[in-house]
Amino acid sequence: MRGLWSRAAAVAARTPESRNRYVDFLRALSIGAVVLGHWIQAAPYTGGGEVALSSTLEYQPWGRWLTWVLQVMPIFFMVGGYSNGVSWQSARDRGSSYAEWLEVRLRRLLGPVLALLAAWVLLGAGMGLGGVDAELVGGLSQMALIPVWFLAVYVLIVLLVPLTHAAWRRYGLWSFWVLVAAAIADDILFFAAGLTVVGWANYAFIWVAVHQLGYAWRDGQAAGPGRGAAWAALGGAALVGMVTLGPYPVSMVSVPGDAVSNSLPPKLPLLALALVHMGLLLSVEGPMRRWLDRAGPWTATVLVNGMIMTIFLWHLTAATLVVGVALLLGGVGLGADPAATGSWWAVRPLWLALYALALVPCALAFRRFERSRGGGRSRPGWMLAVGATVACAGLALLALGGIAAEGAGPLGLRLWVLALPFVGAALAGVDPLPPARGG
């Protein structure tokens, strides 16, 4: 760990003055919120003689209000918009092609997830050979692979950066408000017309809209206490109105048993929440950037960002492994009823500590995959886009159904679904192996 800190400090010392360190800090902060939120929300329980993989929010409705703080996917997409705007403009200034720019982004995004999927293929095969029911394998893996839905959506948005950035340069905030209008129309069709299938279009309308806010931040149209307060007030008023007067639930994440989810597919409350988070966080950007000029906070930020995809992708797998060990030991520690508020929360600190201990070796072992190698030869932009789309289709299916199901294939594994991310990555020129040490 001392070596990791020293290397991070060396990288931190070379940071150019022009870099907005707050962008990296928000990315790291968001990771912490995601990890904590998922670990608290997960509610494995062996009551009644069966293993139940449920959610704390299902049993303790008051916790749904906490999702207004812990649902930080809007921050991810906003930060992504800022970063993609910077990197795409820099590539254009250098005369780099879309293919050259995209190849670098895809290596960083798809490389780490291939290592995770390979590990789950081995875990799934091992459990299948051990006689574990395929449905349980599917449920455990689905819980562990929840983070890959974000990656699937984000990669597709990255493919569109030349178009969305051009729209921003030409139309400014109108490129955001047009998407807001499309999201409103989509929700009207979803609720009023009963066309629930059209709700999936909001994966594009809402998350691209939030991504546009990142461009707005970079160009100074969202930062500052005054603008921040205005954006937060607008988003807060819309959010409160929608959950109290409209058909939307309070929770910003899916809750088992609820008829409507604000996140699957995404709906207008997530867009309003994005405005609240953006406004509050950007209103304090000035003092936070001054704080990040200090060596300690900035080195810690660099350290986390150096393995950020690994932490994000592996945190639920680490928790699943802990739960799996507990089941092998006869369900030790899994008897606390999530409906019994006092006893449930009394043991949460211990479980969080165990999850964290399991995540550390995962992060240290697999962080090298964040520097995935290229596939050897340059590929045209269209091939990169096709490969990325194929990979994202596989990731979305895995997030929805896990790696196994009864009758799916050998040992219950959904082999064709598992193959899609690897086939797509190969088309995109992403080598699943990391560079050699020292490379």
Describe the protein in words.
By secondary structure, this protein is mostly helical. It has one domain (2-10, 22-172, 211-220, 284-427). It has 19 helices and two strands. The protein has helices at 2-13, 21-41, 56-59, 67-70, 73-94, 98-129, 134-144, 148-159, 161-171, 174-191, 202-218, 225-245, 268-283, 285-291, 295-305, 308-328, 341-366, 381-401, 415-427; strands spanning 42-45, 52-55. It has a two-stranded antiparallel sheet with strand order 1-2. A hairpin with a 6-residue loop joins strand 1 (42-45) and strand 2 (52-55). Helix 5 (73-94) crosses helix 11 and helix 12 (225-245) packs antiparallel against helix 13 (268-283). The two termini are 20 Å apart. The mean pLDDT is 90.
Describe the structure in brief:
Helix content is 68%, strand content 2%.
The ordered H/E elements are: HHEEHHHHHHHHHHHHHHHHH
| Assembly classification | single chain
Count of domains: 1
Q: Helical amount among residues, as a percent range?
A: 55-70%
Within the largest sheet, what's the order of strands?
A: 1-2
Radius of gyration, in Å, reads: 22 Å
Broad structural category: mainly alpha
Low-pLDDT stretches are: none
Distance between the termini: 20 Å
Q: How confident overall, as mean pLDDT?
A: 90
Largest sheet: 2 strands, antiparallel
Beta fraction: under 5%
The tally of strands reads: 2
The coarse silhouette is: globular
Number of helices: 19
